[in-house]
Automatic annotation (TrEMBL):
Molecular functions per Gene Ontology: acyltransferase activity
Topology of the protein relative to the lipid bilayer: Multi-pass membrane protein
Pfam family, one: MBOAT
Superkingdom classification of source: Eukaryota
Annotated compartments: Endoplasmic reticulum membrane
Keywords, sorted A to Z: Acyltransferase, Endoplasmic reticulum, Membrane, Transferase, Transmembrane, Transmembrane helix
Protein name: Membrane bound O-acyltransferase domain containing 1
Transmembrane segments: 33-53, 65-82, 88-105, 212-232, 354-371, 391-411, 423-440
InterPro entries recorded: LPLAT_7/PORCN-like, MBOAT_fam
Gene field: MBOAT1
UniProt lineage: Eukaryota, Metazoa, Chordata, Craniata, Vertebrata
Cellular component GO terms, alphabetical: endoplasmic reticulum membrane
Chief localization: endoplasmic reticulum
Length: 462
């Protein structure tokens, strides 16, 4: 359910101090130790869950109950009395879901987190809208029967995702609990042509081991790079008043790079936990290999090699980006980009840094799209020009992302303004100039509506 690792991993500090011997040994706050302990225990529980509580050995109700009970325990262990807040919200929202009319069910639930909002819209699509008015994706995810109380609790509080996510769809989760999850993905492939007489049984072990190795590397980077280049360096007197602009530009990039491993660690470990339980199978890739990336929250290679702001965002916090697209971007009639960024900021919380990041992100996204539309085609005539274009856009993208996301980890107004003043607000100024003086195609202001079932059927007839 969470978008990131525990809050104390960011620029701010929390009330939990390094009083525990293990915290003192590692040099990190106790809440981070609790987070890692819970996720590692969840990993072991996930293996046990897949082996001893498989769909063939027990009923869906037992699987729902086990996932819920362990999830509640992890929440209480990590957050103590603060967990009461979560439980109250979950119970209140279930009351709203079973009593509200299907035409309005998605509206009063917008004050809580991703899964409840996603479920509200999916119930609304399944019970409150005509099938022909839905996009293909909305039709696939539509929930046509309100979930039982046990299904609801299990979906929201299961031990696999209650601490660090990722967000997933209700239908996918129920298919996993009831044993249809992998089977339905495999049916999309003609196995007889591949020489199989029956459906194979893909194991997640390879994917889990690979992701655990990535998790270990990320942890080592966090314990070294992140502590060597903390974000507090960006408000030091040397950085603000003595370093030249080029040095600040490079140092900002290094510090922001050093802040990533904690996210890589938390999201990759969360993905591995779900895979270990048998959840997250996405089918067969183009090379015929089994894929376990249905719930993956990031693609590290594509993030580090991104040549556009859009490509970077599409591979960072993937499940949240998908959620924002499904509940906001594809549904609002006007200004989808701006409204999606605003919703993302509201969902993250009330820290001013979030709003600096997402408002700046809106500006940069529009400017980057404008530049791409106006100039990219000039560099496609030869491989040499395309290579130059890719190298330049990679460098610009990485520097732009570092500038944009810095307030997200600094959180407060004062350090954010101090940083941007020291950088002369250069990216804000450049983005505004691009938007003001370069032509923008009218389509850039209009939301591209997803295909509905009617439009798909009409194309088939043609």
């Amino acid at each position: 359910m969470a978008a990131a690792p525990p809050s104390s991993l960011s620029y701010r500090t929390t009330g939990s101090t390094c009083l525990h011997p293990l915290s003192e040994l590692l040099g990190i706050p106790l809440d981070q130790v609790n987070f890692v302990a819970c996720q590692l225990f969840a990993l072991l529980a996930a293996f046990w869950f897949r082996i001893y509580l498989s769909p063939g050995k027990t009923s869906p109700d037992v699987r729902h109950a086990f996932a819920t009970i362990f999830g509640i325990y992890f929440v209480i262990f990590c957050f103590g009395w603060y967990s009461v807040h979560l439980f109250v919200l979950v119970l209140m929202c279930y009351g709203i879901m079973v009593t509200a009319s299907v035409s309005n069910i998605h509206r009063p639930l917008m004050i809580v987190t991703q899964k409840i909002i996603a479920l509200a819209f999916q119930v609304h699509d399944g019970l409150g809208r005509r099938a022909e008015d839905l996009s293909v994706e909305q039709h696939r995810l539509a929930v046509k029967v309100k979930p039982s109380f046990l299904e609801y609790l299990s979906y929201l509080l299961n031990f696999m995702s209650v601490i660090a996510g990722p967000c997933n769809n209700f239908k996918d989760y129920v298919d996993f609990i009831e044993g249809r999850h992998i089977h339905m993905k495999l049916l999309e492939v003609n196995w007889k042509q591949k020489g199989f007489h029956s459906l194979p049984e893909p194991s997640p072990m390879g994917a889990v081991i690979h992701k655990l190795c990535m998790t270990l590397v990320s942890l080592l980077l966090f314990l070294t790079l992140t502590t060597t280049f903390p974000v507090t360096c960006l408000v030091d007197d040397w950085f603000v008043h003595k370093a030249n602009f080029l040095t600040r530009l490079c140092y900002l990039y290094v510090v922001m790079q050093a802040s990533k491993p904690k996210y890589y660690f938390a999201w990759t470990l969360a993905d591995a936990v779900n895979n270990a339980a048998g959840f997250g199978f996405s089918g067969v890739d183009k090379n015929g290999n089994f894929s376990w990336d249905l719930l993956s929250n990031l693609n590290i290679w594509k993030i580090e090699t991104a040549t556009s702001f859009k490509m970077y965002l599409e591979n960072w916090n993937i499940q949240t980006a998908t959620w924002l697209k499904r509940v906001c971007y594809e549904r609002v009639p006007w200004y989808p980009t701006m409204l999606t960024f605003i919703l993302s900021a509201l969902w993250h919380g009330v820290y001013p840094g979030y709003y600096f990041t997402f408002l700046t992100g809106t500006l940069v996204t529009i400017a980057a799209r404008t530049m791409r539309n106006n100039y990219r085609h000039y560099f496609l005539s030869s491989k040499a020009l395309k290579l130059v274009y890719d190298v330049v856009t990679w460098a610009v993208t990485q520097l732009a992302v570092s500038y944009t996301v810095a307030p997200f980890v600094m959180l407060a107004v004062e350090p954010t303004i101090s940083l941007y003043k020291s950088m002369y607000f250069y990216l804000h100024i450049i983005s505004l100039l691009i938007i003001l003086f370069l032509p923008i195609k009218p389509q850039a202001h209009i939301q591209k509506q997803p295909q509905t079932l009617n439009s798909v059927n009409e194309k088939k007839k043609d």
